[in-house]
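Per your request, structure below.
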């Protein structure tokens, strides 16, 4: 049986389209490939975006901003030394982009201007840290990406 070139092109197109359709259907329906939003309340957080920008600008007006460093015990977050630790309130949110089950939030309770996030709560890899804190009536926000 001899196939002419027109029939061969049509067969090639049908095979290619079939492969692409199989690939698209497999990727969109497979439970292995979950396509979740970054956060559950995406639109609610989008409405707070301008407020976050204002809080980040407030952080830039401080003499020294929040800093962090990795130690053997975990991550030590250091707040400015010139502030009274009893008046600092807020929370620290750690977001793991690769696995939302690892995300957690910790209230700020300071000892000597430091907050320790224990090593047992952290896994190696990339984390986003968001520190939303208040001193007196001013609100501040510190965001950074770290590799633990």
């Amino acid at each position: 049986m001899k196939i002419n070139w027109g029939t061969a092109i049509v067969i090639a197109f049908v095979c290619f389209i079939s492969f692409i359709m199989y690939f698209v259907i497999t990727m969109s329906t497979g439970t292995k490939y979950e396509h979740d939003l970054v956060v559950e309340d995406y639109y609610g957080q989008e409405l707070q975006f301008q407020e976050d920008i204002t809080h980040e600008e407030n952080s830039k007006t401080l003499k020294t901003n929040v800093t962090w460093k990795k130690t053997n015990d975990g991550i030590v977050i250091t707040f400015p030394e010139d502030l009274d630790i009893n008046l600092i309130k807020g929370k620290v949110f750690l977001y793991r982009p690769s696995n939302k089950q690892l995300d957690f939030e910790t209230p700020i309770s300071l000892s000597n201007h430091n907050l320790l996030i224990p090593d047992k709560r952290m896994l190696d890899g990339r984390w986003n840290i968001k520190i939303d804190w208040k001193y007196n009536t001013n609100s501040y926000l510190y965001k950074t990406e770290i590799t633990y």
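Residues 43 and 64 are 32 Å apart (CA to CA).

Regards,
D.
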